[in-house]
Structures are given as C-alpha cells and as structure tokens.
Amino acid sequence: MTVTTTANALIQLHADPPLRGRVLSVCFLVLLGGTPVGAPLVGLVPDALGARFTLGLGGGVSLITALALSVWFASRTRGGVRGPARAPVTSSTGTPVRPRRQRRPDL
User: Fold this and answer.
1) What end-to-end distance do the CA atoms of the chain give, in Å?
2) pTM over 0.90
3) Buried b (16+ CB within 10 A) or exposed e, 23-54
4) Radius of gyration of the chain from Cα atoms?
C-alpha cells in the first residue's frame, strides 16, 4: 500500500500538468492490466520448478535489482549531478557572512 501511494504521489508531482491524466492512466493500465497476465505466470513457475527454487529465484532477482540500483545511484551522485551554483551571501560591506547554525530542539 505504501509503495502504491508513494508511486502515485511521485507521478502526480513530477508529471507535466497537461499530461498528468495521461501519465496516470498509463500507470494504472500497467499496474492493474498486468494482473491477468502476471498471475498465471506466478502460479506456473512454482508448479513447474518447485516452491524452493521459485523463492530462491525471487530472492536472487531482488538482490540483483538492489545491487544494480545501488551502483546506478552511486555512479549518478559521483558523476557530478548537482544543483545550481549559489552565490555566497555577503553583507552590505561585501564581506562573506557565515550562515547561522540552527539549534536542534531537545527531543
């Protein structure tokens, strides 16, 4: 439920406003329309290969996906994807001003 809600919110926040309805319709088509195709496959694999192998296969696919995404995110952050450069804050005399540290409230 959390994954679906997060995906829905991200799609609505990042889609261009004129295309938002179309993007959401394609997302729900894939999400809900894939069930009639995927459900028989999910039942066919353990029937043919056994439950243990199917669980191992699912774990292996999840592990490979997590490692691939980790490498992708790491290479993307090391590659220098950064926000716009900010001008230093200066006082009226032109000397740099250090920003104040915000105090954290006691928990």
Assistant:
1) 30
2) no
3) eeeeeeeeeeeeeeeeeeeeeeeeeeeeeeee
4) 24
Q: Is 24 helix (H, G, I), strand (E, B) or coil?
A: helix
Q: From first to last of the 107 residues of the chain, give the pLDDT tens digit.
A: 888 888 889 888 988 889 999 998 998 888 888 888 888 988 999 999 999 999 999 999 999 999 999 999 888 887 655 555 666 666 666 666 666 666 666 65
Cα–Cα distances (Å) from 75 to 54, 65, 71, 78, 100, in that order, read 32, 15, 6, 5, 33
By the 8 A CB rule, do 46 and 54 touch? yes
